[in-house]
Design a protein that fits this description.
With about 1000 residues, this protein is of the alpha/beta class. Helix content is about 35%, strand content about 15%. The strands form 6 sheets. Strands 1, 2, 5, 6, 7, 8, 9, 10, 11, 13, 15 and 16 form a 12-stranded mixed β-sheet that branches.
């Protein structure tokens, strides 16, 4: 049998809500046994059943809105199903995956569940039977609901082999993975003690513990105590888990399932079958029993069951070995979780292998001497047992009441070398983006607070790996938070600030689409020695892409532009070096962003910036653009000095008279309505500057070496015009600052680049064309210093766009790049997060599981449990319970007042709201005009048919409406009302 990795876990057991709490309960020797909650039944009414057992707190809590389940359907659902759905979500999160990433994949679901008690309790009153109860009471739906709600298309089955159900489910899931039916599988089981009926059966069989406690292998053992439990593990083939870098708790080396056949009775255990299933499992795992350090036994605490199991274990493990095989049973802590018993034992064993310590077995202090454990090569764990270094092996047994036996062999996870850099000082200082998402604003704040508390409990240190983990796990829900951080202290502060109800800086609400991004490439004048050095230090992607640009330029420039940039060399200010350096920075920044999944809808380049823009748009190959930029810089450096450039805060109309008086001075750039750049001889510009200053116009000289975009550039333009340029129509729209319009099929050839040197930069009209064409939500400046975003803000061309800059100046580091990615994630982008991190930081760290809402409860005991004592049973008269699981009341009369959010003067909308309220069980205020039937209200095909009937009953003048007619109108409550309104008008006509 191939190896199967256990990569994710979630569970809830009595006294242990979650994996961390479960392990704590085991290690401190605690138990979850307590009195029967009044919610289940009145213990005094059933004196034949113990008044104690193991019960999960808040088993009635279910976040139905999260899973798009209507209140009426949630009330009809088997509580087993309701427990499984959040457990599945948290287990997948624990595996290092956002559950939504697996939607549409052939992920398998295998659930062990014992009996169908909910169906017996709710379907026995035939007058209250409904379609929702029919679907909600099926044990087979336990797995199918997970597959449906998560959109998994792999094998999906519920397994009922009584007490061994969940371990058999794990066995089947492993087989499905090895057969290639699925690549990921959820496996486990669930059990809820809904009524005292099975406890009465145990009592009549002499198997029930008087105090409701299992005491496995103890001299005090007197039977079974029943308990709740739910647990799921995420399984993958070992090679796949390793390839994907998932955390591995333990490895399933092999498993086996068999049957007792015809034995002493259908519910009597069979020593020989148990012995054979152990032997078969070890054979399939390729191990010998002497290598197994401990066995998590079935261990129910019944006298006969414990004796037969120990005899079978002794026959297999009673062989020469250095130390006896340790045994124990978690049922001492939890009670017998029946359909979830196997997964409870498996999770305990997995955690023991993961933590390398085996918890003691409760009630072991009074070991039953009749079991002769020592003679049989075994010892009952009376205290925790440390596991030695290296691989450890363990077994898990689970035996069904009907004779189906299962045994699994587990091994410790393989050692994985820590990636280089993961424990260095650089790791502690690395910046990342921590993400959290929720299904509502309240859920987002709730989970922000939970993450803050969880991170605060961790040792102080770097946050990069936590950020990477959050990007993989916590990004799938509509309301989003993201913040750039370097260490855990900063992370806790950001999370707590964002969790405050009055703060929304870290979260942008719910994005309804992907951001539309435009890249603005900065031109000459933004260069400075050492530009982007901080980003180069922090960003592996930027380092890689700057090296690629350097390689493209080196053969033409004769030196390394990267070394020139990063060394702080003053030569970077000279045109022959400044232009290649700015091109390298611009192209590397753009490639860094596109490698992160930030794809521009359009690009714009200011003067020299058009070269990097052209490469990004596919109009020029990188090598060709590198050659042209080096040639351009060389030609300009050969021009005589003496020219200058000034920026004036006024429009060209106000400058016309001054331009006429200075023939050598021209407009070099029109950046905005009151943002003009002049170029020409230095003396002319100085005179003009003094004149404008005298008029109160703000004037600023730009840090450039020549009179760019003026007739003084003619020799350089002539030199470029003779070049042969390999170019192509852009694949991304280019807002040309040469023409002031969008380029779609135009070639950016030698003529274009020659004219571009001496003609003015039409920035304002080009940006206006870009905004009109693609309506960007975000403008990102691509360059080493902030220039173009200021121009855009002053000009007002893109007032609605968010302005971002990943490298805004000399102090910039990787934080600004991370902040850019965070802003775009909040705006609806799903980045390719890998590019933001060093390989050594891409290590999955445990994060706090998703915290679901506890506001909704679905459990109406009186609707289905008769609490009279059995010997005084009286005829039962059903009482109405409008929100109960089986209740479908008759069509209600219209309320006197319209529900909130509807128009009292719109009777059609009011009727639709009432129909939706009736079918879904929602409070009227939830059913607003904008509510979507599928996404927000959780309607399915059965509910649509019920809605059709309700609408026809409430709007008789509409007549009969077919589902086919209704379907196109089922976008929202309002769209259905509009459709019915049109039908009424048509019928009236």
């Amino acid at each position: 049998m191939g190896d199967i990795a256990i990569v994710g876990i979630d569970c809830a057991f009595p006294g242990a809500a979650g994996v961390r709490a479960y392990w704590d309960l085991l290690m401190r020797g605690g138990d979850g046994i307590g009195p029967v909650p009044a919610q289940r039944w009145e213990a005094r009414d059933f004196p034949a059943v113990s008044g104690s057992g193991g019960f999960i707190d808040d088993a009635d809590v279910f976040d139905s809105d999260f899973f798009s389940v209507t209140p009426r359907e949630a009330a009809a659902m088997d509580p087993h199903h309701r427990l499984l759905l959040p457990c599945a979500w948290r287990a997948l999160e624990d595996s290092g995956r956002a559950p939504g990433d697996l939607a549409g994949t052939e992920t398998g679901v295998f659930v062990g569940v014992m009996g169908g008690e909910w169906g017996r309790l709710t379907m026995s009153d035939l007058a209250r039977v409904t379609p929702l109860l029919g679907a909600g009471s099926s044990a087979g739906m336990a797995a199918n609901r997970i597959s449906y709600h998560f959109n998994f298309t792999g094998p999906s089955l519920a397994v009922d082999t009584a007490c061994s159900s969940s371990l058999v489910a794990v066995h089947l899931a492993a087989g499905s993975l090895l057969a290639g039916e699925c690549d990921t599988a959820l496996a486990g089981g669930v059990n809820i003690v809904l009524s005292p009926s099975l406890g009465m059966v145990y009592g009549q069989l002499g198997l029930a513990a008087s105090d409701g406690r299992c005491k496995p292998f103890s001299a005090d053992a007197d039977g079974i105590g029943r308990s709740d439990g739910v647990g799921l593990v995420v399984l993958r083939r070992l090679e796949d888990a390793l390839a994907d870098g998932q955390r591995i708790y333990a490895v399933l080396r092999g498993s086996a399932v068999n049957q007792d056949g015809r034995s002493n009775g259908v519910i009597a255990p069979n020593r020989w079958s148990q012995q054979r299933v152990l032997t078969s499992a070890y054979r399939r795992a390729g191990v010998t029993p002497d290598r197994v350090a401990f066995v998590e036994a079935h261990g129910t605490g019944t006298v006969l069951g414990d004796a037969i199991e120990c005899a079978a274990l002794g026959a297999v493990h009673g062989i020469p070995r250095e130390t006896p095989c340790a045994i124990g049973s978690v049922k001492g802590n939890l009670g017998h979780t029946e359909g979830a018993a196997g997964i409870a034992g498996l999770i305990k064993t997995v955690l023991a292998l993961h933590h390398r310590i085996v918890p003691a077995s409760l009630f072991a202090d009074r070991e039953n001497p009749q079991l002769r454990l020592g003679e049989r090569g075994m010892r009952l764990l009376k205290s925790p047992m440390r596991l030695p270094r290296g691989e450890s092996l363990a077994g898990v047994s689970s035996f069904g009441m009907g004779g189906t036996n299962a045994h699994a062999v587990l091994g410790s996870a393989p050692r994985i070398p820590v990636a280089a850099g993961a424990r260095t000082g650089a790791a502690r200082d690395a910046v990342g983006v921590f993400t959290v998402s929720g299904d509502t604003p309240e859920a987002l704040r709730r989970n922000l607070a939970a993450q803050a508390d969880a991170v605060a409990r961790r040792p102080r240190g770097g946050a990069a790996a936590l950020c990477w983990s959050s990007n993989r796990i916590k990004t799938g829900l509509p309301y989003r938070f993201a913040a750039p951080v370097r260490d855990t202290d900063e992370l806790v502060a950001e999370l707590r600030r964002a969790a405050a109800p009055q703060d929304a800086a870290g979260s942008a609400g719910r994005p309804w689409g992907r951001p539309v991004v435009a890249f603005l490439f900065t031109g000459q004048g933004s260069e400075y020695p050492g530009m982007t050095a901080g980003l180069h230090r922090d960003s592996p992607a930027y380092r890689r892409h700057l090296a690629e640009a350097d390689e493209a330029l080196a053969g033409h420039l004769g030196t390394s532009v990267r070394e020139l940039i990063l060394s702080g060399d003053e030569r970077v200010l000279r045109p022959e070096f400044a232009q290649p350096a700015l091109f390298a920075v611009g192209w590397a920044l753009a490639r860094t962003l596109t490698s992160l999944g930030i794809t521009p809808a359009a690009v714009l380049g200011h003067s020299l910036g058009e070269y990097a823009a052209a490469v990004t748009a596919g109009a020029l190959p990188l090598g060709e653009a590198a050659r042209l930029v080096v040639r351009r810089g060389a030609l300009m450096s050969e021009l005589p000095a003496g020219g200058a450039v000034i920026a004036a805060a006024t429009g060209p109309e106000e400058l016309a008279e001054l331009l006429a008086g200075e023939p050598g001075m021209v407009v070099a750039a029109l950046n905005g309505p009151a943002d003009t750049v002049l170029s020409g001889p230095l003396e002319a510009l100085e005179r003009t500057g003094r004149e404008l200053a005298g008029r109160g116009v703000r004037v600023r000289r730009l840090p450039v070496s020549h009179a760019f975009h003026s007739p003084l550039m003619a020799p350089a333009a002539a030199g470029l015009r003779t070049e042969q340029v390999r170019c192509a129509p852009p694949t991304v729209p280019v807002a040309s600052t040469r023409h002031g319009r969008m380029l779609r099929h135009d070639l950016m050839d030698a003529g274009y680049w020659a004219d571009q040197i001496e003609e003015p930069v039409l920035m304002d009209t080009a940006l206006g064309a870009l905004v009109a064409d693609v309506a960007p939500t975000h403008l990102i400046e691509i360059g080493p210093r902030g220039t173009l975003l200021q121009i855009a803000a002053r000009g007002g061309r893109a007032a609605a766009a968010e302005l971002l800059h990943p490298a805004p100046g000399a102090e910039a580091t990787g934080r600004e790049l991370a902040a850019t990615v965070a802003a775009l994630y909040r705006g609806g982008l799903d980045p390719l997060w890998e590019e933001l991190y060093e390989p050594g930081h891409r290590v999955v760290e445990a994060l706090n599981p998703y915290v679901f809402s506890s506001a909704q409860r679905h459990w109406d005991r009186q609707a289905f449990v008769h609490t009279a004592q059995p010997h005084r049973a009286q005829p039962h008269t059903p009482q109405p319970h409008p929100a109960g699981p089986g209740t479908v009341p008759p069509v209600a009369a219209p309320p006197a007042a319209a529900p909130a959010g509807t128009d009292a003067d719109d009777p059609v909308l009011l009727a639709v709201v009432q129909a939706v309220t009736e079918v879904g069980g929602y409070p009227p205020e939830r059913v607003v005009r904008e509510a979507r039937f599928y996404e927000d209200l959780g309607f399915d095909s059965v509910m649509i048919m019920q809605l059709k009937n309700q609408v026809e009953a409430r709007l008789p003048r509409v007549g009969e409406v077919s589902v086919q007619q209704m379907l196109p109108a089922l976008r929202s409550v309002g769209s259905l009302a509009a459709f019915l309104d049109d039908m009424l008008l048509a019928r009236s006509a």
